[in-house]
Design goal:
This protein is of the alpha/beta class and 380 residues long. The chain is 29% helix and 29% strand. The structure holds flavin-adenine dinucleotide.
Length: 380
Amino acid sequence: MENYDVAIIGAGPAGAVLAQRLGLKRKVVLVDARPMQAPARISESLCAGPHYLEKCCGGLLAPDARKWLSNRGLFLPASVLDGVQPDNLRALDLTGSLERLYPTEYINLSRSSFEKWLLSLVPRGVETFYGYRLKKIEREKTGFKLRLSSGNNASGSVIELRCRFLVGADGANSMVRRFLNRPARSQAAYLAVQDVFPAESADAISGAGLFEEYVAFFHPMLTDFYGWIIPKSDQIILGMAMPAWVREAKKATVHMELLKKMLRPAGYDFSGSFRRSGCLLLRPHLSDVFLGDDSVFLIGEAAGFISPSSAEGYSYAFISADNLANAILRHDHVAKVRRAYAVACLKMRANILYKLSKSLIMFSPSIRQMIMYSGLFAKV
Ligand SMILES: Cc1cc2nc3c(=O)[nH]c(=O)nc-3n(C[C@H](O)[C@H](O)[C@H](O)COP(=O)(O)OP(=O)(O)OC[C@H]3O[C@@H](n4cnc5c(N)ncnc54)[C@H](O)[C@@H]3O)c2cc1C
């Protein structure tokens, strides 16, 4: 059985950055349940076993994430940029029929190309198991024994490995975090659902500036967070973050129908055919941030790092991965690594606190309406 210094579970933005930083200096294994590559041939896509599935995500790169990349000398290749780059965001308050146009600096990406580009930066020395899900964690005297499995049935293959440090970069529904028995509060776990309308459906959907602007909409009957419309060159995404009560009542489908109905008076018609995807999305309070325990570390959304006001997660994934890499590279003793990681993450905690206070303003219907009515920060 192979022994590693660090096993990273999850090859999303957080896991990819950590593997890139540690790969040349430590023996690292990077594991992801998704294959991370689309099948090269149709015959391959018909094979049993997991298929590449793009993570349910808006794929917008915020200025903070862009700044982090350029500070590291990482410049986005053209291949990851979407052909549509809106510079306006339309805010729609569906209760008061208010709308305003705001300038925005988000970069519109293809999530799958962005993810593949980040993974292309991982050094060759890093062992990768894509298409393998972490199934079992056993604590041992000097580390952990992990069991990975490909596919859901008995025909899948099983790999066992050992590691000294275990890193959960496995997102909002982190198994590594569950192993530590420190889940985020259930009210912090939203269900994000996205209906993706291919460009061919363009005739069946309509709305003001639909193909040129981002849209964020608000209505307390739909969500206490927000919903969004994101145009891409080959598709339009209609999404919403649904609070725990919708998730628990398993009413997502009914809720998406209600959303489409409520958008109609605002001039948006989403009657075309679509592909639906969904996943958990954390909207953390400070108490939901948890960096791990003993020799288990959490980074990115698994640690609760994501903006509670906008659901922007890339910058938090990058910075937390970078902080942990610095701690591991500087210290050998686990207690020192843990301390250095915790200290480095204080700024991120403060940032979450700031975003929580921003959220009180943005998501209070009366304050939001007052701001929108006043035209403060708006273009039109
Ligand atoms: C609908 C939606 C829209 C969003 N839009 C944006 C946006 O536009 N901009 C932005 O900045 N952020 C956005 N976010 C947030 C962003 O997607 C996340 O915060 C970010 O991807 C977190 O990165 P991560 O690496 O921590 O986790 P993830 O990107 O979630 O990656 C976790 C990885 O772990 C793997 N994994 C999970 N469990 C296991 C297991 N047991 N074994 C092996 N592998 C496992 C998964 O396959 C996945 O690849 C959005 C989130 C949602 C839900």
